[in-house]
Fold:
Amino acid sequence: MEERHRLNKRTLRFSHFSIERAPDAILWIDSEGSIYRANSAAEDMFEFDAASLQGQKIYTLSPMDSKQKFAERWEHTKQKGICKYEWLYLSKSGKSIPVEITRNHIEFEGKEYSCSFIRDITERKNAEKALRDALAQVEKLKDHLAEENLYLQNEIKLTHNFEEIIGQSETIKRVLEKVEQVAQTNSTVLISGETGTGKELIARAIHSVGKRRDRTLVKVNCAALPLNLIESELFGHEKGAFTGAFELKIGRFELANHGTIFLDEIGDLPVEIQAKLLRVLQDGEFQRLGNPRTIRVDVRLITATNRKLEESVLNGTFREDLYYRLNVFPIHVPPLRERKEDIPVLTHYFLKKYSTQIGKKIDIVPVKIMNMLQSYSWPGNIRELENIIERAIIMNSGSRLQSGDWMPVKPSGHTLSGQTLADIERNHIIEVLKSTGWQVSGQKGAAKVLGINPNTLVSKMKKLNIRRPGK
Structure:
């Protein structure tokens, strides 16, 4: 008996030593939730000494707990014998401690106890959060790349007017000199000129020979975007930012980060969006719709307009401060009627381009027809010339271009005296609409003949008060 008594005392000392030196907190809790015993690790975790912990109700140490919940867990552990779960405790100083608990139900000397082994899993939780944040960032980058890829695929599908700028006149040479001067800088460029003069082509030339040529060139036609979607298109939106926003959308400015963004028809940008654009120019930052977080971007801005922005500033439809920010380096693209010596070169270029596409070979232009083309005023500029040459190839056979219904509506007798640019544009659009039976879109529509987006044509018709007779 004495030997057994010494052995029991020895075992108790070993057990006490093991409990006190255990790295996990160990709590003995009775059926009422009172802490019966706590080891040194529990003192360190909860920032109480053992005497203070003894008698405390375990459910007062957790914001997730209550007397009722403790009773439910007690019964569950009693039935299972052992259970494991994650929980949250608060230390004496109020520090949150995420833990993993292994609870054992035992009976001793006629009483029931729960022996809980409590492990601090703060580091594991931090690592899991860091992993979730990293995965979220990967998903964000994935969405960004997918959006950029989709945009680039759409850009590849576009058929541009030229592979290069075509012309030999002194006026176009002066334009190219300006392109060369500004391309290597990050300065903002404002390209002005009538519809169809090739403003987008000039913008692409500036980007392609500039410092950012290896980055994305993102194009936005401000006149073609619905008013309620312009801000979302430019700056993006969060999922649920407005009705119909079912997923995160990356805006065009974010897509163009470290590259170039080309805002065509900048004069049609609503005044309320102009303020946000001004902030991007001044500070290089903006916010997505539905997200207060500021996004910073490094974007080179090129804009284009067929309007006189000075007049828009005077009548209050364009912000004066934004105009001066955009007009750092202006480039004016001359209309085709001011560079008529380029018409033969352009004509032969389009003949070759569309003859190949259509499957014909027309490479001879009689002098009489060329003189007629050069004497025409070309209110639709290069775009109109391109469309007319395409139509001529469709309607002609043989290798020699013949006169016919494809020829421009107004011959050399057309006069511009006394007419504003808006008058010329309005009259030309009406003539084209009449020739298409007032059909706007489609292969035989006026937009196709004019070489512009149908939405842009509708916008111009509203702006110029063009209505079909009887409507």
